[in-house]
Amino acid sequence: xxxxxxxxxxxxxxxxxxxxxxxxxxxxxxxxxxxxxxxxxxxxxxxxxxxxxxxxxxxxxxxxxxxxxxxxxxxxxxxxxxxxxxxxxxxxxxxxxxxxxxxxxxxxxxxxxxxxxxxxxxxxxxxxxxxxxxxxxxxxxxxxxxxxxxxxxxxxxxxxxxxxxxxxxxxxxxxxxxxxxxxxxxxxxxxxxxxxxxxx
Length: 200
Prior knowledge:
- 45% of the residues lie in helices and 12% in strands.
- The protein is an alpha+beta fold.
- The chain folds into 2 domains: 2-103, no CATH class; 113-195, Alpha-Beta Plaits (2-Layer Sandwich).
- α2 (16-31) packs antiparallel against α3, α3 packs antiparallel against α4 (66-75) and α3 (36-56) runs parallel beside α5 (86-103).
């Protein structure tokens, strides 16, 4: 135990937890070496256990025990007369696969409720539209059709774009189609496209 604490305090980049759990698992077969069949089964379970832990654990240093897991798996089948047994050899890997599937982190599926609402992007025909009085007045009227706000930004050099933020849900009598149509009618608008969290 002293050398484990020393390695941990010295900051060798290996997790103390990896040693505490991994080292005993790798040495359990030694405790039952006088019983060949039990020894083989302990090697199989220990090797599969270390592999499973390496897959599902984020503990730094756990990969150092992968070679030990390989050695345990090989040792389980070295002696032809002392192998774990057919049923045990089938059940142990199956159990390891099930445990791995249950413990592996599931892929994150973002909820649309947590995403920002889409926006409308409308490129304008000229940078001078920024000072276009008619456009500035009419874009404010987009609020009547559900827009939260509308502003002009220079997304690329010399390219002015009208950005219209939309609500998560339109009010009664409002719709995306109607708002998009109103944006198309603004002076200087070249095109209109819906920009979502995934497409922009």
